[in-house]
């Protein structure tokens, strides 16, 4: 699905983390709500959602949120520290 999403207008990126077979989170980033709505209407995405409901997931949560600000920190490797 990530490759399919990446080809959609308005797609900005994705972060995904899994812990064993029990817990996972995937966050996709989109330019605007119209892009999100178009992705939801995508036929292959719709089929994947339905398949997931039938076969893979007992439950899941979808949250749509607007990111107002984002920043990051990365410690330099030990060899580069003062």
Keywords:
Alpha-Beta Plaits; 82 residues; extended; two-stranded antiparallel ribbon; alpha+beta; single chain
Summarize the SSE layout with pairings:
Elements: H1 2-6, E1 11-19, E2 23-30, H2 33-41, H3 43-56
CATH C-level: Alpha Beta
- The level of helicity is 25-40%
Order of helices and strands: HEEHH
Q: From the helix content, strand content and strand pairing, which structural class follows?
A: alpha+beta
Major β-sheet annotation: 2 strands, antiparallel
Distance from N terminus to C terminus (CA atoms, Å) equals 43 Å
Strand order of the biggest β-sheet: 1-2
- Count the beta strands: 2
Q: From the 3D structure, determine the CATH topology.
A: Alpha-Beta Plaits
Specify the CATH architecture: 2-Layer Sandwich
Strand residue percentage = 15-25%
The whole-angstrom Rg is 17 Å
Q: Count the domains.
A: 1
Globally, the shape reads extended
Query: Which spans of ≥5 residues are poorly predicted at pLDDT below 50?
Result: none
Number of H- or I-type helical stretches: 3
Mean pLDDT, rounded to whole units? 91
Could you write a compact summary of the structure shown?
By secondary structure, this protein is an alpha+beta fold.
């Amino acid at each position: 699905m990530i490759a399919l999403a990446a080809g959609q207008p308005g797609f900005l990126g994705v972060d995904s983390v899994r812990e064993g077979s029990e817990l996972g989170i995937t966050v996709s980033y989109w330019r605007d709500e119209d892009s999100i709505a178009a992705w939801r209407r995508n036929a292959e995405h719709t089929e994947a959602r339905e398949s997931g409901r039938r076969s893979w997931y007992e439950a899941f949560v979808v949250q749509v949120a607007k990111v107002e600000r984002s920043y990051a920190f990365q410690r330099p490797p030990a060899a580069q520290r003062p």
